[in-house]
Write a structure and sequence with these properties.
single chain, about 350 residues, mainly alpha, about 0% strand, globular
């Protein structure tokens, strides 16, 4: 008995549903970001009142003149410490989440993320060499730290692809190659750390555990150009990733060049990961867990997955930073510890739930 192919109208309707913007999810993600930002700027060693924060933020808008209730000292805390740190957390979280979604689309495997593919470890090694040994790798407006992190990340992802013999059709081999690269670069990090003096080692270790600096807006301004550029590339290639889900032959039939699209997405994801690592250290699970959460809410279309992952990833890391600042106050936990404590159990649950449903 022959099966009849679905009519063209049904295929067009299915495609339209896949690419339809789910406004409730978008509004929910934006609302989540706003609430987390307000919580983040209010919480800390000295709490700030919601009304005062709202008035101060509203007063910064052009053409808005409202009476301020925060003291000059509170204004300084808000604009020079809390807001820069919150913005940095949101930007790093968005960057890692978009990179994770991009890697998962390229390798067609939900386990792929910057941490598992060795990219973070490679970027970490480059940054350790720049921090610990003062390597001058800057060119033009690009600082030494992101340049060294990008070189390390590029070497790591290139090594993973070479070990897998350049095949993007075998995600398992690529993931295993990434694990090997991560182990290799972690060993090189350990060796490099042993060559440093005690004070420099303490500084580098603090960075490796994942931290969000509070030195004004400088880290935000350093990361922002990379995040905007690489994020725009990933958003432009979101449709390519949707087409690649159908397979290479189908993608070529639709006029897409799979190898070129994958190379561009990997380069953009590597750049945004390296830039994020250079200002925050190694923060795991953001790029792995966030796309999973977004898929549960809006489906698998990368046209929605990438921008919503950016919003949810930014909110997740900003919320994790609130925990890092308040759970053991007045001391402070590395934010990477918080993301691991939340992300690892969640990911184990996803794996267990998926196996149970088979």
């Amino acid at each position: 008995m022959s099966t009849q192919a679905p009519p063209a109208d049904a295929l067009e309707e299915s495609a339209e549903r896949a690419f339809r913007i789910r406004w409730p999810a978008v509004v929910g993600a934006v609302t989540l970001v706003v609430l987390v930002v307000l919580l983040s700027v209010m919480q800390g060693a000295g709490g700030l009142p919601l009304s005062g924060v709202a008035r101060s933020l509203a007063g910064a808008l052009p053409g808005v003149d409202v009476a301020q209730t925060l003291t000059p000292q509170q204004q300084g805390v808000l604009w020079q410490i809390r807001l820069p740190r919150t913005a940095l957390a949101a930007l790093v979280g968005a960057s890692l989440a978009m990179a994770g979604a991009g890697y998962q689309g390229v390798f067609r495997n939900p386990l792929a993320d910057p941490y598992l593919l060795g990219v973070s470890a490679g970027a970490g090694l480059g940054a350790v060499l720049a921090l610990g040994f003062g390597l001058d790798l800057a060119w033009g407006p690009v600082g030494a730290l992101p340049a060294a992190a990008f070189i390390g990340a590029l070497v790591a992802v290139t090594g993973s692809v070479l070990v897998a013999r350049g095949s993007f059709r075998d995600p398992a081999t690529l993931l295993l190659a990434g694990v090997a690269m991560a182990a290799l670069f972690a060993a090189l990090q350990t060796f490099a750390l042993q060559q440093l003096d005690q004070s420099r080692t303490r500084e580098v270790l603090s960075w490796l555990f994942g931290r969000l600096a509070t030195q004004g807006w400088q880290p935000v301004s350093l990361l922002l150009p990379y995040a905007v550029l690489a994020g725009a590339v990933l958003l432009v290639h979101a449709r390519h990733l949707d087409v690649l889900r159908l397979g290479d032959d189908e993608a070529r039939a639709l006029g897409l060049r799979p190898a070129r699209s994958r190379l561009v997405v990997v380069a953009a994801a590597t750049l945004i990961t390296a830039a994020a690592v250079s200002v925050s250290g190694l923060i795991g699970f953001v790029g792995l867990v966030t796309p999973h959460v977004v898929r549960l809410l809006v489906g698998h279309s990368y046209r929605l997955l990438i921008p919503l992952s950016a919003l949810v990833g930014g909110a997740f890391l900003a919320l994790a930073d609130v925990g890092a600042r308040t759970l053991v106050a007045p001391a402070e936990l590395p934010v990477g510890v918080i993301t691991a404590l939340v992300g690892a159990p969640f990911f184990c649950f996803v794996l267990w739930h998926g196996r149970r449903d088979r």
